């Protein structure tokens, strides 16, 4: 599958002929000024939780593309109030069938509120299964034993995990998470956006390699095959 990184935790995956965009935060990202959100294509937009650094550009990109937004029921309701008519409300559980495959909402240990402080439901991650392949996006989360459930639902081709620490797992915890989910190919996100989540990228990749894992850290606007 084709993975395109837009910075922080925002990325697109081409899955079974559809473009799946996750956690759109480009406007406001100090590293992503060269990325034009008008050029981003999305058939679906998945939102893991309501924080501004995951939802900031959801409305604009959804309107530009006529995309279907998939998120917790509280976020889906909020999007409807912003004029988004194509929404699919979900929560932990599933799987839910879409035209590209199936999606299961899974636990994430974090918080979730809208930029105005309103309640945005429970944070979550997503397990996607399809004919093109299977992957897990953890969303913003601490390391949790619940990740050991993931292999019961899918044999993963790759996983997208936060590695910046402070608000989420750091790279050391992400290595443990990779063992829990039985996945050796990890794409790192949620790092190097602001000082408090800066990491030593070379060390992180070396630590993953020492554990028999591959940590992929694509550049902003770079596309890779996973």
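Sequence proposed for the structure above (226 residues):
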């Amino acid at each position: 599958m084709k993975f395109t990184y837009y910075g922080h935790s925002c990325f697109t995956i081409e899955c079974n002929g559809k473009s799946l965009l996750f956690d759109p935060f480009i406007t406001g990202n100090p590293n992503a000024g060269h990325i034009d959100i008008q050029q981003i294509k999305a058939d679906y937009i998945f939102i893991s939780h309501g924080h501004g650094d995951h939802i900031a550009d959801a409305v604009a990109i959804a309107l530009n593309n006529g995309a279907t937004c998939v998120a917790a029921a509280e976020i889906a309701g909020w999007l409807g109030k912003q004029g988004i008519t194509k929404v699919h409300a979900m929560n932990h559980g599933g799987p839910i069938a879409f035209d590209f495959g199936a999606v299961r909402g899974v636990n994430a240990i974090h918080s979730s509120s809208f930029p105005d402080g309103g309640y945005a439901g429970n944070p979550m991650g997503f397990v996607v299964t399809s004919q093109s392949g299977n992957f897990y996006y953890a969303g913003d989360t601490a390391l949790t034993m619940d990740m050991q459930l993931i292999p019961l639902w899918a044999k993963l081709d790759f996983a997208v995990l936060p590695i910046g620490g402070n608000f989420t797992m750091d790279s050391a915890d992400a290595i443990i998470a990779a063992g829990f989910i039985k996945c050796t190919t990890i794409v790192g996100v949620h790092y190097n956006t602001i000082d408090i989540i800066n990491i030593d990228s070379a060390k992180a990749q070396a630590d993953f390699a020492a554990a028999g894992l591959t940590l992929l850290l694509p550049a902003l606007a770079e596309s890779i095959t996973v």
